Amino acid sequence: MALENILLAVGPGDKDRTEKLVEFVVDIAGPADTTVLLTHVFTQDEYSSTAEALGIENPTEIPPDEVARRHETTQSISEILEKDGIHYEIRGAVGTHSEEITRLAVDENSGLIVVGGRKRSPTGKAVFGSTAQEVMLSAPCPVTFVRGE
Question: What is the pTM (predicted TM-score) of this model?
Fold first, then answer.
């Protein structure tokens, strides 16, 4: 049974994991009727700095989907998805990473969430938290964690 929607969540730290994330999603989505929801969630500070880096003078006048579409990581993933014939849509959101990923998964009726991350020590998890862990605990569907190097 094919999934209708796979939410692929990317963020500021995923540039080095792009290849692994896309490889996994392409294997799962295949040429079926699955849509990959390529999602980039920004905190307010990340959104402002990204918009500024993209030359957007007034970030409140441009939707988060458009800022996500112009982001380097999103563009590189989009190119691979297109090359492999995978249907995708880009979603952008501003807020807390884990909350927005979960909200979008609910809103889009996602059957799977794919998140990236890195190995952390138990102390690192306790001190800094983990977006992937928070998503896994609150997601409305299964979550696959793709670990980077």
Answer: 0.87
